[in-house]
Design a protein that fits this description.
The protein has helices at residues 19-32, 120-127, 137-144, 146-155, 168-173, 175-185, 211-219, 267-271, 287-303, 337-343, 349-361; strands at 6-13, 38-45, 51-53, 77-79, 88-92, 98-103, 106-110, 163-167, 189-193, 203-205, 224-229, 234-241, 250-259, 277-280, 309-317, 320-327. It is α+β, with helices and mostly antiparallel strands. It folds into three domains: 6-132, Rossmann fold, CATH 3.40.50; 143-159 and 231-361, 2-Layer Sandwich (D-amino Acid Aminotransferase, Chain A, domain 1); 163-229, ATP-grasp fold, A domain (Dna Ligase, domain 1), CATH 3.30.1490.20. A hairpin with an 8-residue loop joins strand 12 (234-241) and strand 13. It starts with 5 loop residues before the first strand and ends with a helix.
Length: 364
C-alpha cells in the first residue's frame, strides 16, 4: 500500500522588495523537493498581494539576472481555510468557479522581507492553526527588525555592531544630532533600513555629503533606519537548524564572503553575478574560531526564540565574533550559503528541505 504523501503549500513571491529573490528560492525548492514523499501546492503572492495558484514549474521562477522572476497575476485566487478546524485550500479559477485543493499538512513560506519574513504571514497561519516551516510571530518580527534584534543579542552577551536608529522626523527636526551620532560612530558608516533584507536600501557613507542620499534611499524601505559603524573583519555566515525534540540547536560549518573591488556585499553582488565577490565554503578557520562562531550562532538563534532555520552573519575580528544580523528565511537556492553550508556539513539540499518540513510538523 502506497504511503500517503505529506501535502505542502509552497508560498512565495510577496509584496516586499525581495519578491524576485523569493521566486528564485521557490524555484530551487520546487526542483529538489522529494516528490515521493511530498505533494506540492505552489501558491504565489503577486507584488500587490493576491494569492494565486502558480505553476509547479521550477524553470519559470529560476533566477535570471536579465529577466528576474515574478509572480504574475493569472486570474486565479487561492482561499485559506475559514476557521482553525479546517485545513482545506480552495481556488477560484479564471472562469469564476471555486474548487477544492484538498487539505494541506504544512506551509513552507519561502518569503523574504516584510509581509512574509516579519511575522505577518506567520500570524495568519497561526490564526488558522496551520503548521509552517520556520519561526513564529515574535521571533520572525524581532529577527526582521535589526534594531530590536541587536537589543536581544546584547542581552544574550553577544557583541553587536555599534549603531544609532533614526526616524525621518528625527532627521528633519535635529539633523545635527544625527551628524553628532555619526561623529561618535566614526566614518565610514553604513545606512540601512531596519526591516529589509538582501542589502536593499543599504549605502556606505564615507563622507557627510553622501548622508542625505543614503538616508533617503533607506527610508524608501522602512520608517526607521540604522546608522552603523564599519567593522573591520572577515564576513562569516553560519547556517542554523532547530534541534529535534528538545535536542540542542544545530550549527553548520562556516562560509565566508570575500569582497574585492566593491564597497560591500550589496544586492548586485548577492544575486546578479557581478565580479568582485567570492563565496568560500567551508571558510578557513581555526578550530577555536569555528567553535566560537558556532556557539555564538546557536546563542543568537536561541535568544530570539527562533524555530526551523536561520542564517547568522558575523564579522570575525581580532577580538572575536561581532554579530551583524540573523535571517529567519535566508536565501534557499541550491547555491545559496545556507544550503551550501549544510551540504558541506553532510546534509544534502533535498534532505534539508525534508528536514525543515518534518520540523514544521512537530508543531501540529
Amino acid at each position: 500500500m502506497t504511503a500517503q504523501k505529506t501535502r505542502v503549500a509552497l508560498l512565495f513571491g510577496g509584496r516586499s522588495s525581495e519578491h524576485q529573490i523569493s521566486c528564485a528560492t521557490a524555484s530551487g525548492v520546487l526542483s529538489a523537493i522529494d516528490r515521493e514523499r511530498f505533494e506540492v501546492i505552489p501558491v504565489g503572492i503577486t507584488e500587490s498581494g493576491a494569492f494565486i495558484l502558480a505553476n509547479d514549474d521550477a524553470a519559470q521562477f529560476a533566477l535570471n539576472p536579465d529577466d528576474m522572476p515574478r509572480v504574475l497575476d493569472n486570474g486565479t485566487r487561492v482561499h485559506w481555510p475559514e476557521n482553525s478546524d479546517d485545513r482545506e485550500l480552495r481556488v477560484t479559477d479564471t472562469e469564476g468557479e471555486t474548487h477544492s485543493l484538498g487539505d494541506i499538512d504544512t506551509v513552507f513560506p519561502l518569503l523574504h522581507g516584510p509581509y512574509g519574513e516579519d511575522g505577518t504571514i506567520q500570524g495568519m497561519l497561526e490564526l488558522f492553526s496551520i503548521p509552517f516551516v520556520g519561526s513564529g510571530v515574535l521571533a520572525s518580527a524581532m529577527s526582521m527588525d535589526k534594531h530590536f534584534a541587536k537589543l536581544i543579542f546584547q542581552s544574550a552577551g553577544l557583541t553587536v555592531t555599534p549603531w544609532r536608529t533614526v526616524t525621518r522626523s528625527e532627521v528633519q527636526q535635529d539633523k545635527k544630532a544625527v551628524v553628532r551620532a555619526i561623529d561618535d560612530l566614526g566614518l565610514p558608516v553604513f545606512v540601512k533600513p531596519s526591516r529589509a533584507g538582501s542589502s536593499v536600501g543599504v549605502s556606505k557613507v564615507s563622507s557627510l555629503d553622501q548622508l542625505d542620499a543614503a538616508l533617503e534611499e533607506a527610508f524608501k524601505s522602512d520608517s526607521r533606519v540604522l546608522i552603523e559603524s564599519t567593522v573591520v573583519g572577515r564576513e562569516i555566515e553560519l547556517a542554523v537548524l532547530e534541534g529535534r525534540k528538545q535536542s540542542p540547536t544545530r550549527v553548520s560549518v562556516a562560509g565566508e564572503i570575500v569582497v574585492t573591488g566593491r564597497d560591500f556585499y550589496d544586492f548586485e553582488a548577492k544575486y546578479l553575478s557581478v565580479p568582485g565577490v567570492d563565496l568560500v565554503c567551508p571558510a578557513k578557520l581555526t578550530e577555536s574560531e569555528l567553535a566560537a562562531l558556532q556557539e555564538h550562532a546557536a546563542r543568537a538563534f536561541d535568544a530570539l526564540g527562533c524555530e526551523g532555520l536561520s542564517r547568522v552573519d558575523f564579522f570575525l575580528t581580532p577580538d572575536g565574533p561581532v554579530i551583524n544580523e540573523i535571517n529567519t528565511m535566508p536565501g534557499f537556492t541550491p547555491i545559496s550559503m545556507f544550503p551550501t553550508c549544510w551540504q558541506l556539513s553532510g546534509v544534502s539540499y533535498p534532505e534539508l528541505i525534508t528536514e525543515l518540513i518534518e520540523l514544521s510538523l512537530q508543531k501540529s
